[in-house]
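re: ur question from earlier - yeah i can do the single chain one, its not a big deal. heres the input i used so u can compare w yours
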Amino acid sequence: MANKTLPFSQAQLKEIIQQYPTPFHIYDEEAIRNNARRLLAAFSWAPRFKEYFAVKATPNPTLLKILREEGIGADCSSLPELLLAEMAGITGEDIMFSSNNTPAEEFQAAKKLGAIINLDDITHIDYLEKHAGVPEIISFRYNPGPLMKNGNTIIGYPEEAKYGLTKDQILQAYAIMKAKGVKRFGVHTMVISNELNPDNFIATAHMMFDLIAEIHQKAGVAIEFVNFGGGIGIPYKPEQEPVDLEYVGQGIKKAYEEKIVANGLQPLRIAMECGRMITGPYGYLVSTVLHKKDIYKKYVGLDACMANLMRPALYGSYHHITVVGKENLPLDHVYDVTGSLCENNDKFAIDRQLPEMAIGDLVVIHDAGAHGHAMGFNYNGKLRSAELLLKPNGKVELIRRAENIADYFATLDLPAEIGQAAATKTGK
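and the output i got, formated as tokens:
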């Protein structure tokens, strides 16, 4: 069972809020580092194991730099993500660029950085060659179709997903690239997301090891690395168990020995691109209760909204909620916990049992360290909130300031007097 605790006390949080008003996201640096080390340790048996952190999960260069210091690279899917990785000191083959429907300038930027380019379709071979040239190393994303029975609301079923190449296409693609002079090859897949069953990751490894053997046999290509994608879930609900990384590591090791070593296909480098499981459990959305409403249901209104955390509205996802200072009170009230958007799905919780809440209570929404701030938006004129880093020594660092009204209007071609008025409202 996941123990939903906080890395700060009520007194510490009140001190933080004196400097940084709610809402904000705050990340626990020490816990993130320890979690990254645990993943790396689980695969320490694998030759040159590499974790490419999925930048889309938490695209902040301060966090990327922390992960780089732990030996982790970057999984990027756009030009801004490539630039964020570069800002954090992640370059070359420590970047894996896996995108789809990619414009030419992004392929060009990835090649200039020396990133490993992972193509999503066989037609992208000609496009890449025309606009960026043939790289030294290439990878292709495999879509197993109905062979893989897993699916969920996030990634769907493989045969219905827009990603990757079929078996026949991928065999043809390697033969084409070999004929073009490429000598280094990788293969990639991503067929599950937010998965808690460890056996599904081991099954993915078996599937990919079989594919690698077939590529070697039919296309005459030696695969240098396999990237199993991410997909390791986190226990959003207290009754859920986290994925046993050590079990997964040892299960994949057994498959590696049976299918790679036994067939003389080693050394094969193992890679992953986890995002959620690295930072997700160690980020928190902190908010304040602004209003209470009692009509057909009881509502608690926060100063945060789905612009700060979209997952509950988008997927109906559960995020645990702590009312700070009331952790030990009975959960004898039922509330919908809402934001301020003009959308009825702007709810962090529906019919949630919580202690009796009052205006001014501090609320912490757990497991918001991935796909939280990153999915923010400006609908209804909402401004993205700040991101803070809780350092191991207990100090707090601002790693992204909150947006202000001038930011909101910055991309508009406004008359001078309106632009000046917007700046005046924010003290600029």
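The longest helix spans residues 198-219. not sure if urs matches, ping me
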